[in-house]
Amino acid sequence: MDYYVMVLRSVKKLLESTGKEQYAEIVQECIENWEHNGDSTMFGKEFSNNGRFADFSLNTSSISDPKKGFWTGQTLSALIAMSAQLAVFNQKGVETDLNFIRSNFGAANEVMNVSKCQDCGRFEATEMDIDRYISKIVIAKKIVDGMERGNLDGQIEEIVNLTAPEIEREHRKTLTRLENTGVPYTNVYGTVKTCLKCGSKKISTGRLLRSNKENVFVPLKH
After folding, report:
1. DSSP code for 143
2. Is there a contact between 17 and 44 (Cβ–Cβ < 8 Å)?
């Protein structure tokens, strides 16, 4: 199975669905260059400083649902990273090992960033904080599952449409860990502006380290 072409086609489809047709055409050229010439170097060149993707950006705020915008942007970034890795494998003549990729692509975050009041030290997590924390491992799993099963586009659609069961499952697991830690959670897709404990508007980023011994986070001082 040609995983490189499979992932590139998914990149192209996601670019088209977000109104980036001109960049989707470049990806199509990369596909054709590989299929006709056996050359996978074009993809990397197009993402270099002199490449046609050098000024590429995905304005996820243009997507009406900010949550969908976040997951779409993260999924596209992961697909591009996977494409780059597969391109290197092809250049070196290395066979794609899905077990290796599954073990090394999209490792879980050890630290979760949340809001922290500078005045009273209160931590608070939002729905966006949780999504940022779980997105890497969820997306990596869905991409590798899709490559292995030959249904990558379907796996991606589940992510961007927020119907992937992995999203809800990892969300619940993280919420339970927050509750066990005593960190309050607010169902807001954004950042905390005001501390609900002392009313301060001096909000910074707090860091929570995932404990490997207990189902809790350990607040970090710095």
Report:
1. H
2. no
pLDDT tens for each residue of the chain, 222 residues long? 899 999 999 999 999 999 999 999 999 999 999 999 999 999 999 988 899 998 888 877 667 789 999 999 999 999 999 999 999 999 999 888 899 899 888 878 899 999 999 999 999 999 999 999 999 999 999 999 999 999 999 999 999 999 999 999 999 999 999 999 999 999 999 999 999 999 999 999 999 999 999 999 999 986
The model carries a pTM of 0.93
Burial class (CB in 10 A: 0-12, 13-18, 19+), 186: middle
User: Structure tokens of 144?
Assistant: 């590798």
In whole angstroms, give the CA distance from residue 222 to residue 217.
Answer: 15
